[in-house]
Amino acid sequence: MRLVQLNVHPLKSGAIRPITSTTVLPRGLADDRTWMLVDGDHRLVSAREVHGLFHVVADTPATDPSVAAALRLRSPGHPDLLVDVPQTAPVDVRLFSLHLRARPAGAEADAWLRSALGRDDLSLVWCHAPEQRTLQPGFSQPGDHAAFPDSFPVTIASLASMRQLNDWMLERALELGEEPPEPLPIERFRANLVVDGYEPFAEDRWTRVVVGDVPFRIGKPVGRCVMATLDPLTLTTAKEPTRTLARHRRVEGKVFFAVHLVPETSGRISVGDAVRAD
Description:
Helices cover about 15% and strands about 35% of the residues. A hairpin with a 2-residue loop joins strand 3 (about 20-25) and strand 4 (about 30). The N and C termini lie close together (about 10 Å). It has a domain at about 35-130. The protein contains three helices and 20 strands. The longest helix is centred in the middle third of the chain and has 17 residues, at about 160-175. By secondary structure, the protein is mostly beta strands. Strands 1, 2, 13, 14, 15, 16, 17, 18 and 20 form a nine-stranded mixed β-sheet that branches.
């Protein structure tokens, strides 16, 4: 099995940034989901609420070495904006039910994002202390932590599972007399690591994964939300893949695709690395 894609999302719900190599840290991949948008009540704002976030391209030196700041923001019709590491006092923020602390990026970044996304209550914050956050009890160990992902530091998905899901979607459409759908890309699931070379859904049975020389512990399966139904290009929603996942991958009212990982050490990984799982 090989690592065939490597993806980072410096801004939570921002455009996927494919890369060829990165550093793995205890909190996850370098700069992955370290920036987040919040509303006037300091609660998370994601692409679930503001679909246009998928079109905001956020880069850091980890995703583009030419970036001469902590963060560079790009959006159609707007000039690029460089954002430095915030030195502001931390404020309380909410990530779902979690109460965390983060540093505001400042008025210039807020104004840029409000203009780009057409919403006047947005603010950008940066995770200055990822170790403040503990992970879900029962699926984590003392010391596990992350920045601003939904649940766990890293996610891994399988192209073999994606091919099986697309086959299931085609079968379902034909059963219902619908037009055969175009295969969905693996990017719908916004995984950090994409692998190929195992049978479909072999990841359900894994307890540990080693990418190159970096070991990861399995956290839990990834429960999918409405974001998987959002086309990242057109920003339109549809029934798939949730409809088909609900038929084949539904457990206790949730649908699952891909699995969460927790890094067991730091190190470098690259596209093409061997992946071993047990």
